[in-house]
Design a protein that fits this description.
The complex is a heterotetramer, with two copies of chain A and two copies of chain B. Chain A is of the alpha+beta class. Chain A is 20% helix and 21% strand. The chains are: A alpha+beta, B mainly beta.
Chain lengths: 173, 391, 173, 391
C-alpha cells in the first residue's frame, strides 16, 4: 500500500484543509489531517453487483442493502431502511455534527469517493438493516477513522443513536 | 462501460483479485462527471398520511425501557419513521384532524429506577419530533397493551387515560389547553371506550359498565353504573372491542358477539349472536390474540382472528381470519394467513388493506382485505409488536 | 362449571376474607372477593410430567420450565431462570406488594392450590424463560385475575418488571 | 401413587379428558400433608464470588436505553442476577477487594432525549442493588464496548473513565471519598490502561502513548507523551490489550504481538513476535472480534480468537482459539469452538474456565480452558453481549 499512500497523500491533505474549515468544532482540524490519510482500500463487498442493478449506473446498487458500494466501512442500521436515505436522516432525528471519513470505490464510474459517515441522532436504535463493514476501520484511538464511536456525541440531540448514512463529500483523485 | 463492471468481468468475485485491481484504479482514466457532493438532509412526511399507513406499537417486552411506535407504509412495505416512547409503552392516540400524535409515556430518572415521570408527549405528525409535553400523575396503567387504555372523546377535545395503582381511575387531559384537567375515579372498572363528544364507558369486573359523561371543562358531569351486561365469570368479553358508529362490538371468550349500543340515554346490549356454529365449537374453534377484532365500517364487516384450541388459549395467535357481516350476522369469508397473527387492523379506504402482526415476531404482514390475498411482509417493525393504529 | 362454582364458593369466601386482611391496600378487599371466585380449571399443560421428574413427588416438575404445575396462569419471565426461584426474587429486585391469585392443580398430591403470582420489580426484563399460560386468566377489567397487568404497580420500586414467581398461599379445599 | 399420575394414566394427554377429571378432583380424598404456604423471599449472593462466575456486559444495540450486566455461574450454567445500567452501556469495573461494583452509566430524562446525566453507580455485590451514585460530567465516551474504556488504578483508589465529546479526556473518581475529582485532558489519545497505583497510559492516534501519573488527590502529577511505539496507519494494535504483571500485551491487525512493558520510568515495547507463520498468513489466518485476547497469568498463556479472512475482517468472530506461551512465543494449543466467538475470558483459578460470547448471539459458552473441552451453553445472557469481566 506504500505506493498508494504517497499517491493519495497530496489530495488527502487538500481534503483535510477543506474539511477542517468546514468542521464545527475547534479541535477537529488536527485530528482530521490524520483522519484523511486514508489509503485506498478494496471494496470487495461493496463491489458485488446487487441483483436489482443489471445495467451499470453512475451510482449502482441498492442503498437498503449492506453491499451498497458507499457503505464500505459503515457500522450500524442503514437509514435507508428507517425512513431516511443513504444521505438523509429519518423524520425527527438530527444528523450528527461530527463524522468519520472514509474512502469507498464506486464500481459504477470506477472512481474512489471520500464519504462522510453521519449518524442520525435523538431516537433509539432503528433496528433495521444492521450493516457492519470495516474497510479501513481503525481502533478507537484513531477516532476519525473508527466506526466504533457513536458519532451522535457532540450533536444537540446527544448520544442516542438511530441509524447511519454515508454521503459523498468529494472524489479521491 | 464502467471500469467497475470491467473489474467484475476480469475478476469475478475473489477478494484478492478485486483488491489487486482496485489498487490500480486511481491511475486509470475515468469517463463521465463524478457524482455530486451531498449534504446530510432530514426527511419529513407529507401533510396528509396515506390511508395505507399504519402505526405499530411495541412494548419491547425484553427491553421495556425502550418502547416505540413505528410508522409503516403498507403499499411500499417500507418504514417511514419511529417514535421513542419510554417504559412499558402502550400506544399512540391519533386525533381525527391529524394535527398531532398523542403519546402517554412513562420514564424513570435512571431508566428502571429513580423518580417516575408520566407525560403525554405531543409529536408533530410530519416531523415525528416532540412539540410539547403534558405532565400527568404517575399512575398510567402498566399493562400488556390494549387500544382501550387511552382514547380521545369523539370531538378530540379530551384525552382519557386509564390508571391502575392498583386504585382505578381515568386521567383527563384537555387537548385545547394542553393541560392535565383531573382524575375520575372508576372503582372496580377499567379502560376507556368513547361514546360521544363528552362521554365514555369503562368495563367493570362484575360485567356492568361505568358510564361517564364530562362537562366542557373535562370534569365528570355524571357517573352511572349500568346493570350487569354480561357474565364476567363464566364468559367474559375480551377488552379489544371495535366501534362502528354508535355500537361497540365485543366478543366473549366462547365466541359470543356482544353489541354494546349507546345513545345519550346510555348503553344497552343489542342482539347477541355466536361466531361459531355448534360443529365449529366442537372442533375447538375460538378467538385468540390481542387486537384480534377489526371492523371495516363501509361494509359493516367484522374481521376476527381464530384458531383451534382448548379453553385458556384466548391469547394464542391464529392463522385464519374469519370475516362476518354485522347485519346478516353471517360469516362471509375465511382468510388463510401466511403467518400467525395476534393483532389485525383493516384500513377504512375504498381498497382496504389487512395488516397483521404478532407479539412473538418482529414482522408485519400486509394482505388485500377484500380478497385476503397476501401482499408483502415488512420485517423488523419492533421487538414485540402489540397493536396497530391508523395514522 | 356451575356445580363446581358452588362447590368452591364456600372456601373461596373464606379465602377472600383471609386475603383481604392480608392486603396492604385499603380498597383491595372487595376486589379480592371477586378475584377469589375462581372455578377450578384443568392444568393440562402444568400436568405434563417434566422429563427430569420420573418419580411422582409432592412438588413435581422443574421450576425453570414453563410446564411446572404452579405456573398454570403465569405470564412473564420465570424468576427461577433469573437468579431467584419459584417463590423468591432475584438479588436486587423487590417482590410486588400486590399480586393476582390463581388456582393450580398439583399432580404430585392431587390437590388444587391457591397460588399468588408476585412480580419481582426494580430492574429491567430478565429476558429468560418467557412463559405465558392463561388458565383462568381474565380480561383487564377483572384485575386480580388478569396476568396482563404489571403487578409491580404499587411496589416501592415502581413498575419496572424483572420476572415472575408463583408461591403457594393455601389449598383450595 | 398420586392422583395426578393416575389422571395421566387414565387420560393420557387430552385436554378435555384432563378437564373432566380435574373437575372431580376436589371431591376425592388425598393422602399426605399439603405443601406449606410460602412467603415471597429475596435472594442474595454469598460474600465471596466463585472464581467461575463471570459478568457479561450487554450494550443492547437494538434497544440501547436498556444496557445491562448479567452475572453467570459457569459451573452451574445458571444466571445469578443482573444490573440495569442505562444507555449505551459499556461495562462493570470490579475492585480487587470486591466490596463494590463500579458502573459508569448514562441516562436521559426522557429515555432517548431530554437532559443527560452521567453517573458512576456503586452496587452492593451481594444484593446487586445500588448503594450510591457519583455524579460525573456527561462526557463518557459512547462507543461499542471495550474493557479499556474505564479502569481502576492498581490500588483501587481512583476510577478512570475515558471521555469523548469529541474532545478527549479522562474523568477521575476517588473511590474513597466517592466523589468526582476532576478531568485530565488527553488530546489525541484514548482509553485507559493502568500501570500502577498512581499511573496509567492512553494510546494516541499516531502510535505513541500518553503516560499519566496521578498524585494522591487524583490529579495529574505528570503527563508524558512517549515516542511512536507502533505504526497506527499500516498495522495498528487492537484496543483489547491484556495485562500480565508489568506488561500490557497487544496484538496488531496483522498478527504481530506487542508487549508494552512498563516501569516507574515509563513504557517501552519489548520484543515483538508474530502470532502467525508465513504459511498461516498466506492461508489468511488473522485475529478478530472484540475481546479477542485473554491471558491465563499463572502459566503465562495468551488465548487468541482467530479466523481466516481478508483484511478488514478484524471484527469478525472466530471458531478457533489459539493458545500461546508468552515465554517461548510458541503456540501450544488450538481450541476448536462449538460456536463463533468475538469475546473470550479465562478465569485465573487452578482449574480455569474459558468463557466465549459474541455480539451476534445472546448465548454464553463455557469450555475447560486447559483441555478446550466444551462444557455448556448458557442461553439468553443478553441481547448483544460485548465483553466479560471476572467478579
Amino acid at each position: 500500500m506504500k505506493l498508494l499512500d504517497s499517491l493519495c497523500e497530496r489530495s488527502a491533505r487538500q481534503l483535510a484543509r477543506r474539511l477542517s474549515r468546514r468542521s464545527v468544532l475547534g479541535n477537529l482540524g488536527a485530528m482530521l489531517v490524520g483522519a484523511s490519510l486514508v489509503p485506498l482500500l478494496p471494496v470487495a463487498r461493496g463491489a458485488q453487483p446487487h441483483r436489482s442493478s443489471a445495467e451499470p449506473k453512475a451510482d449502482p446498487g441498492d442503498p437498503t442493502q449492506c453491499d451498497y458500494w458507499r457503505y464500505c466501512a459503515i457500522d450500524g442500521f442503514l437509514c435507508s431502511c428507517c425512513g431516511g436515505s443513504q444521505h438523509s436522516c429519518p423524520p425527527g432525528t438530527e444528523p450528527s455534527r461530527i463524522t468519520w471519513i472514509g474512502t469507498c470505490h464506486n464500481p459504477g464510474d470506477g472512481r474512489d469517493y471520500i464519504v462522510s459517515y453521519n449518524d442520525c441522532c435523538g431516537k433509539s436504535s432503528c433496528g433495521r438493516c444492521l450493516c457492519n463493514r470495516n474497510e479501513n476501520d481503525s481502533p478507537l484511538y484513531v477516532p476519525f477513522r473508527s466506526n466504533d464511536y457513536d458519532w451522535c456525541a457532540g450533536s444537540q440531540s446527544g448520544i442516542p443513536y438511530n441509524c447511519s448514512i454515508s454521503r459523498i463529500i468529494g472524489v479521491a483523485k | 462501460m464502467s471500469s467497475g463492471s470491467l473489474a467484475r468481468r476480469l475478476f469475478p468475485g475473489g477478494h484478492l483479485a478485486a483488491f489487486a485491481f482496485a489498487t490500480l484504479l486511481p491511475c486509470m482514466a475515468v469517463a463521465g462527471p463524478p457524482l455530486a457532493n451531498e449534504a446530510a438532509t432530514l426527511q419529513t412526511l407529507p401533510s396528509q398520511p396515506s390511508p395505507h399507513w399504519v402505526w405499530v406499537n411495541d412494548i419491547a417486552f425484553f427491553n421495556m425501557p425502550d418502547g416505540r411506535a413505528t410508522l409503516v407504509d403498507g403499499d411500499k412495505g417500507t418504514v417511514l419513521g419511529m417514535l421513542s416512547t419510554g417504559y412499558g409503552y402502550v400506544g399512540v392516540v391519533i386525533p381525527k384532524d391529524r394535527q398531532a400524535i398523542y403519546s402517554p409515556e412513562s420514564y424513570y430518572s435512571r431508566g428502571t429506577r429513580g423518580v417516575r415521570a408520566d407525560v403525554v408527549t405531543l409529536y408533530d405528525p410530519r416531523r415525528l419530533s416532540p412539540m410539547q409535553e403534558v405532565a400527568i400523575p404517575p399512575k398510567r396503567a402498566a399493562i400488556l397493551s390494549t387500544s382501550s387504555a387511552a382514547a380521545l372523546t369523539d370531538d378530540d377535545r379530551f384525552l382519557l387515560i386509564y390508571n391502575f395503582t392498583p386504585a382505578q381511575s381515568v386521567t383527563v387531559v384537555d387537548t385545547r389547553s394542553r393541560k392535565f384537567v383531573g382524575e375520575i375515579n372508576t372503582p372496580g372498572c377499567a379502560l376507556v371506550y368513547p361514546t360521544g363528544p363528552r362521554s365514555f364507558f369503562s368495563i367493570c369486573g362484575d360485567g356492568a359498565l361505568l358510564e361517564v359523561s364530562l362537562d366542557d371543562t373535562g370534569h365528570a358531569a355524571s357517573i352511572r353504573r349500568s346493570a350487569k351486561l354480561f357474565d364476567s365469570q363464566k364468559d367474559p368479553v375480551a377488552e379489544g372491542g371495535v366501534r362502528v358508529g354508535n355500537t361497540w362490538w365485543f366478543t366473549s371468550f366462547n365466541g359470543m358477539v356482544y353489541p354494546f349500543e349507546f345513545t345519550s340515554q346510555g348503553v344497552t346490549v343489542g342482539q347477541r349472536w355466536p361466531l361459531f356454529s355448534a360443529p365449529e365449537q366442537a372442533q375447538g374453534w375460538r378467538t385468540g390474540g390481542l387486537q384480534y377484532l377489526a371492523a371495516y365500517r363501509r361494509s359493516g364487516l367484522l374481521y376476527v382472528v381464530v384458531h383451534q384450541g382448548p379453553l385458556a388459549t384466548h391469547k394464542d395467535p391464529g392463522k385464519q381470519v374469519w370475516v362476518y357481516d354485522l347485519k346478516s350476522q353471517r360469516r362471509v369469508q375465511r382468510i388463510a394467513l401466511r403467518h400467525e397473527a395476534g393483532s389485525i387492523l383493516v384500513t377504512q379506504d375504498a381498497s382496504p388493506l389487512l395488516f397483521t402482526c404478532f407479539l412473538g415476531s418482529g414482522a408485519l404482514q400486509v394482505y388485500d382485505a377484500r380478497t385476503g390475498r397476501y401482499l408483502r411482509t415488512v420485517e423488523s417493525v419492533g421487538q414485540t409488536p402489540t397493536f396497530m393504529v391508523s395514522p
